[in-house]
Design goal:
With 490 residues, the protein is of the alpha/beta class. It contains 18 helices and 19 strands. The longest helix has 15 residues.
Length: 490
């Protein structure tokens, strides 16, 4: 389990080797108010245009935006578009661009005409030759990738079927990565997944997946069944099927299925969202995240990307804001005072498909042991609710001289922690009724408890949740701190 700040810091220390189809994305924005007198076609009054690094280059930009180093291997033509891409990529200090020049083909270029008022794509014009790279060009691509491999923590193949990732290039890079014990993430385009045999994780979108598997799978269970044969054919560890507003479904080789709903987002433009997913997934995995943590991070990054216009990249700060939005709330907003308010918050989170965690305690004097448990508890879920014993409850449990701090003071201190999304004060000696109300997906306590000693463990398990015990820091206890303070005061 990794909290976001730890994961974010590790990202800055990682290097991703990305190989794929580079392209120049141009967006022409304008207003449409009339139809051409020459033909039944709308006329766009162009107002501005933007040039962006697209295709696999956008994967590289996303990796760099998240603070990591990207060694990029791609192909350009001997033309103005190629020079533009080369210039743009080399301006980013975190991108090491190894661009092979092929004078026999143009640099792939896509021009999209977008209505400013309706924020919709009206037309796209493509300049490209989608043919496999010539044998001598293949050799140069392979040589550049294999030379960079020892410096990479993970390998990412971004396939747009424009000719860079030929069967020979794919095979030699995956085999070399295996020998170097490096995982390979593939954003595929071939409908025959066997081409990517031996890759770690494939990330097809729903359309690619349904066409490749010839299935109409829609639910996570149906996708899980359809993916099993595809995983066997591809010889991969897992497959992540991205489904736009319907979220993402990760199917493991052993048949386990994890579905992560999409984060709420105002969609402006879906261009390049798949690049963002692949980049974030690969970088999170390279940084030590579990498959589930990496998928959740990728889902959050996608929600940020689709909220931007054009081919967008996502920064660590933007990703953090999406994953830990409660951090922007005031302390008072995090403390709920009644069941009705609690239910309203929980309903919002459940509609968004978020994983809700719960832990509890008196938290009379907050110390490093508490902070460790709370931080690691937040790493197990999307939102963490903390149950706080009321003053009367603490007196019954700890004696008439406790608590040292009143319940509202204790609640505000907890709410000031970024790991905490909600604080609920309860009057009972145990949080069992609160746990039944919340129905958490994960119940967390310190490792000084056994699973059987954790109040509510049977209820949570019966509802499909899990109990997680966090190792506590030795030498930290509120009671010992209070006793020490009183002795020193005496």
């Amino acid at each position: 389990m990794i909290d976001f700040d730890t994961l974010s810091e590790r990202m800055t220390q990682r290097t991703v080797l990305c190989i794929g189809d580079l392209m120049l994305d141009e967006f022409v924005y304008g207003e449409v108010s009339r139809v051409s007198p020459e033909a039944p076609a709308p006329v766009i009054a162009a107002q501005r245009s933007e040039l962006n690094v697209g295709g696999a280059g956008n994967v590289a930009r996303n990796i760099a935006a998240l603070g990591a180093t990207c060694i990029f291997v791609g192909l350009i033509g001997q033309d103005a578009a190629g020079e533009t891409l080369k210039s743009d990529l080399t301006q980013d200090a975190l991108i090491e661009a190894n661009l092979i020049v092929d004078p026999s083909r143009p640099t792939t270029r896509k021009v999209r005409f977008v209505s400013e008022h309706y924020a919709t794509h009206m037309l796209r014009a493509d300049w490209e030759v989608a043919l496999a790279a010539a044998p001598d060009v293949e050799s140069k691509l392979i040589a550049a990738a294999i030379k960079a491999l020892p410096r990479a923590d993970i390998v990412l193949l971004s396939d747009y079927a424009k000719g860079v990732l030929t069967q020979r290039v794919i095979r030699e890079i995956i085999d070399a990565a295996h020998q170097a014990n490096k995982r390979v993430i593939v954003d595929p385009k071939h409908l025959n997944f066997a081409v990517y045999h031996g890759a770690s994780i494939l990330t097809p979108n729903r359309k690619e997946f349904t066409e490749a598997t010839r299935s109409r799978a829609r639910t996570p269970q149906e996708i899980g069944l359809a993916a099993r044969e595809a995983i066997e054919i591809a010889g991969c560890e897992a497959m992540l099927i991205t489904q736009s507003e319907n979220g993402m479904t990760l199917v493991a080789r052993n048949g386990d299925v994890l579905h992560v709903p999409a984060y709420p987002a105002k969609v402006r433009d879906v261009s390049g969202a798949g690049d963002t997913v692949a980049a974030t997934l690969a970088l999170a995995l390279a940084s030590g995240a579990s498959d589930e943590e990496a998928v959740r991070a990728a889902s959050a990054a996608a929600a940020v990307a689709v909220g931007k216009r054009g081919t967008a990249s996502v920064t660590r700060a933007e990703l953090r804001k999406k994953i830990v939005p409660q951090a922007s709330l005031t302390m008072e907003e995090k403390v709920v005072s009644g069941w009705k308010e609690l239910d309203a918050r929980l309903d919002d989170w459940r509609r968004a498909g978020l994983r809700i965690g719960f832990t509890n305690g008196c938290f009379d004097i907050l110390h490093p042991g508490h902070v460790r448990v709370l931080t690691q508890a937040r790493a197990t879920c999307d939102r963490l609710v903390v149950g706080l014993n009321s003053d009367s409850s603490v007196r019954r449990l700890k004696g008439e001289t406790r608590p040292v701090q009143a319940e509202l003071a204790r609640a505000e201190v907890l709410a000031a922690l970024e790991a905490v999304d909600l604080v609920v004060i309860f009057e009972e000696d145990t949080p069992l009724n609160l746990i039944r109300q919340i129905k958490p997906s994960v119940l967390v306590k310190g490792g000084d408890y056994t699973r059987e000693q954790v109040v509510g463990h049977e209820f949570v398990a019966a509802n499909g949740g899990e109990v997680v015990l966090i190792d506590i820091l030795p030498g930290h206890s509120t009671t010992s701190l209070v006793n020490r303070a009183r002795q020193n005061g005496g």
